[in-house]
């Protein structure tokens, strides 16, 4: 699926120094936008315009980042102070009987065909005991 852009056939080069060409921003933007089209081969598009494919991938990545930043729209926000000071939060009937759940964990050690599994709250001393017993 080749895409050729007749308006992009000439490669605009800014500056007169020899070596690396300096492409103008409009050329980069148009070529990057063309590279974002569905079904376009970025490598083929770069080859058609005489530039390195990695350079076009970089331009496309930068173009997409710019497009995402432009798409993010901030909405105005107003903060209103309440007319009366906030009181205590109402509690639901089940909230008064809230017990902390015990920490749950598991340690599983496989040695050959043997499996050692410790479930529940494993503290450092229990783990140290198990590891000490494993070493000869």
Automatic annotation (TrEMBL):
Keywords: Plasmid. InterPro entries: Homeodomain-like_sf (IPR009057), Transposase_8 (IPR002514). Residues 1-22 are annotated as: Disordered. GO terms for biological process: DNA transposition. It holds the Pfam family HTH_Tnp_1. It comes from the Bacteria. The keyword Iron does not apply. One of its GO terms (molecular function) is DNA binding. This is Transposition-related protein (Modular protein). It comes from Cupriavidus neocaledonicus.
């Amino acid at each position: 699926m080749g895409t050729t852009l007749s308006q992009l056939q000439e490669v605009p080069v800014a500056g007169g120094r020899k070596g690396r060409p300096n492409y103008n921003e409009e050329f980069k933007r148009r070529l990057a936008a063309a590279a974002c089209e569905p079904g376009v081969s970025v490598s083929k598009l770069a080859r058609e315009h005489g530039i390195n494919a990695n350079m076009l991938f970089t331009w496309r990545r930068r173009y997409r980042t710019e497009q995402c930043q432009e798409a993010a729209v901030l909405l105005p926000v107003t903060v209103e102070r309440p007319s009366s000071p906030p009181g205590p939060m109402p509690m639901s009937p089940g909230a008064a009987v809230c017990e902390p759940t015990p920490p749950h964990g598991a340690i599983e050690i496989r040695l050959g065909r043997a499996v050692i599994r410790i479930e529940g709250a494993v503290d450092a001393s229990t783990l140290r005991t198990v590891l000490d017993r494993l070493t000869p």
